[in-house]
Design goal:
Helices cover about 60% and strands about 5% of the residues. A hairpin with a 7-residue loop joins strand 7 and strand 8. A 4-stranded mixed sheet has the order 1-2-4-3. A two-stranded parallel sheet has the order 5-6. It has a two-stranded antiparallel ribbon with strand order 7-8. It is mainly alpha-helical and about 550 residues long.
């Protein structure tokens, strides 16, 4: 089926989408007219008024849906982005103009830099694309970070390829019709009234039918745009751009989760310009094979009958099956980021468009401080349930005189040992480290030494374990089953207290580890002996001596 025939089919199906509203309005008006002209007007006036009122309530969402449908192509539909002008970014605009020229289509009227791994050209057309309108190009900053200039050119050629056919006005109808349908459905979802739900449900069912019927047309347009890019830029470069874009998508998702938002639990973000700019560190630290492996480990989205894009594997296979065009791909070509004037400043300005107002209010920390702040928050989260349980246990049971270190205990959980003042001093020092304000919330909880004293006093399985939080289904467990269930939480609590102690003593250091996982680097003796020492402390017959030996050998940072 040709593009023109596919467009005609889309228009006919789209007429059915609009016909729903006309039929509903006609049915409502006919019902009201029949009731008002019947003899029931005199017999049951209140019933008639109720029906007319209900009809009016149902007519409102119908009219609103028809109005939203008419305006679907007139509003800017792209994501929030940083406006980029030819004056501020002349090199980038020159590349965009060159790509549009090779695609034999007009250049966009506006260019926006976004924060996602995507590129798109939208057109505020009239009559569902039959009449042209202003075009906007949305270009993801991660693409500039991870692609070479020729690969970026291939991406742009693909996007402009949607507009480069001779029958563009007809071929674009299917794509814009799908966008109009989705826009109208979203308009119904924006209102939660019962009338909108009833009417919107009809539109949703027809929208599903429409998307299914036009899926093949939408996919054919994507494949045609891939071929257009290969024709203008080269087969191998286009294939590399597709493959690289797929890998960048997985890598960027991982970067946002593991690095850019690392400090959010500690109410902190990376330095200004590094929320998006830090992505370059991850790409520099990992080989192309590692990025491909990362993309392969990500669960692929399930295909649906409504997808407008074919699977990436199919797109790559079709491009690679094209005959050789004599061009070669240069993986060491100029990075696309070189097209930006003052990349750091542009990425810093982008944050005001991509971050929420709440996120912009968070403090900004350097990457090592960010890792430290997050590590302390995590360690406190592990430690707090154990410390709270110990405090409650000590409130109910006095420690016997002569603990493991010869100190005496009290019912409020304090101990008068020689290390008490040192612990308080270290806690004050830790509260002065950026990102470690969480220590203030732990000032009234027992520390590591107090917990070890309670374990030596025989309270771990007698008192502390029973006061640890656990789900209701585990409350009836007894004996070994109960211990095995709660042991991991006790282990994590001790590990958290150890991390907090080593941070206080400044013997644990942050490691951003762009090629692995961000976290703290512990002294060698702790890296090798910590797990077994904590295992011994939470065993059925607890033994804190291995952990105390490590603590005695760790030393303290000088004041």
């Amino acid at each position: 089926m040709t593009a023109s025939l596919r467009a005609v089919r889309a228009l006919m199906l789209l007429g059915g989408f609009y016909l729903i509203g006309a039929v509903l309005l006609t049915a409502l008006l006919a019902t009201d007219w029949l009731l008002l002209s019947s003899t029931l007007v005199n017999r049951s006036p209140y019933l008639i008024l109720s029906v007319v009122f209900a009809s009016a309530m149902l007519a409102v969402p119908v009219l609103r849906g028809m109005f939203a449908f008419l305006l679907a192509g007139r509003r800017r539909s792209g994501p929030e982005g940083l406006p980029v002008t030819p004056e501020t970014q002349p090199k980038l605009w020159a590349e965009v103009r060159e790509a549009s020229r090779k695609a034999c289509t007009v250049e966009p009227d506006a260019l926006f830099l976004t924060g996602d791994v995507n590129a798109a050209v939208t057109e505020r057309a009239r009559l569902l694309g039959l009449l042209p309108g202003p075009r906007s190009l949305y270009l993801g900053a991660p693409l500039l970070t991870g692609l070479t200039t020729p690969e970026l050119h291939a991406v742009l050629a693909h996007e402009f390829g949607h507009f480069s056919n001779q029958d563009t006005r007809l071929a674009g109808v299917t794509m814009r019709s799908r966008a109009a349908v989705l826009h109208t459905v979203d308009a119904f979802r924006a209102h939660d009234s019962r009338a909108h739900a009833v009417i919107g449900n009809l539109y949703v069912h027809y929208a599903r039918f429409f998307l299914r019927a036009t899926q093949s047309s939408a996919r054919q347009q994507e494949l045609a745009a891939d071929r257009a890019a290969a024709r203008h830029i080269g087969r191998d470069t286009t294939a590399s751009a597709l493959r690289r874009t797929r890998d960048l998508g997985a890598a960027h998702d991982h970067y946002i989760d593991a690095y850019a938002t690392l400090g959010v639990p500690a109410h902190a973000l990376p330095p200004v310009g590094e929320f998006h700019g830090g992505f370059r560190h991850l790409l520099a630290a990992r080989s192309p094979e590692e990025l491909t492996e990362l993309a392969g480990s990500r669960e692929a989205p399930r295909p649906t009958p409504y997808d407008s894009h074919p699977p990436m594997s199919e797109r790559l296979a079709r491009i690679e099956a094209l005959p050789s065009d004599g061009t070669t791909h240069d993986p060491a070509a100029t990075p696309a980021m070189s097209l930006l004037h003052d990349p750091h400043g542009a990425l810093a300005d982008l944050e005001s468009y991509t971050l929420s107002a709440a996120a912009e209010g968070l403090s900004r920390l350097e990457w090592p401080e960010l890792v430290m702040a997050r590590s302390v928050v995590d360690a406190s989260g592990w430690a707090d349930p154990l410390s709270t349980a110990v405090r409650r246990a000590l409130g109910a049971t006095a420690l016997p005189s002569g603990g493991a270190d010869g100190t005496s205990g009290s019912a409020d959980g304090t101990s008068g040992g020689p290390d008490r003042s040192d612990r308080e001093a270290n806690g004050s020092r830790a509260r002065g480290i950026p990102g470690l304000d969480v220590e203030d919330s732990r000032s009234d909880l027992p520390g590591l030494d107090d917990v070890l004293d309670a374990i030596d006093a025989g309270l771990l399985w007698m008192e502390v374990a029973d006061r640890m939080p656990k789900p209701a289904r585990a409350s009836r467990l007894t004996g070994r089953s109960a211990r095995n269930f709660i042991r991991p939480a006790l282990w994590d609590g001790l590990a958290g207290l150890v991390y907090l102690r080593l941070v206080e003593e400044k013997t644990a250091h942050p490691d951003i580890s762009w090629s692995g996982k961000a976290g703290l680097v512990l002294p060698e003796e702790w890296e090798t002996g910590m797990d077994s020492a904590i295992d011994a402390a939470v065993a059925d017959a607890p033994d804190t001596e291995p952990l105390r030996r490590l603590l005695a050998g760790s030393g303290r940072a000088p004041e």
